[in-house]
Amino acid sequence: MYPQTHFLFPFFIGLVLSKLNVLSWELALLAGIIGVLVDLDHYVEHILHAKMNQFSLRATWNNSIKLHRFYQRSFIHFEKGALLVTGVLVALAFFSWQVSLALAFGYYSHLLLDYPSMKKERRIHLRIGHLYIREPYMEIALDVLLMVGVLLLVL
Ligand SMILES: [Zn+2]
Q: Containing H/E element for 131?
């Protein structure tokens, strides 16, 4: 999934919980930011494996979206990472269960959203400057629904 979806989904859930006085809006925002930051491993993997443009965010993006020269997901996207993160979140929950919950929404929603294989879904194909965009229409529809939900919750 694309970064905006990884942000919007946990942010929306966090906002719903803030309406129920479970989380603050700041922690809802943190959940959304964590949802995006999980994919920083793509950049680290790019630095480790790329033959050229090692530190280029654009090359990292295009490899992830279109070129697929090497796999960019690290252990953090799989079982070992989930076990490690779960341990950290459980330990953190003893200090602040609300911060732990916000981080958990960001992290686990990221894994959940990355799981569905949408390789056969119809996609929009764009090229903005040197960046490739190949987002499935279903993901765009989900983004629109989440944005409407977020707007309804904040207005
Ligand atoms: Zn991911």
A: strand 131-136
pTM over 0.85: yes
| Phi and psi, residue 133, nearest 5° | -125, 125
CA 96 to chain centre: 23
For residue 136, the CA-to-ligand 1 centroid distance in Å is 15
* Backbone angles phi and psi of 99, in degrees to 5: -65, -45
Residue pLDDT, tens place only, 23-57: 999 999 999 999 999 999 999 999 999 998 999 99
Residue 76's Cα: distance from chain center in Å?
A: 12
Q: Please give the distance, rounded to the nearest whole angstrom, from the Cα atom of residue 78 to the centre of ligand 1.
A: 10
Residue closest to 17 by CA, chosen among 110, 139, 104: 104
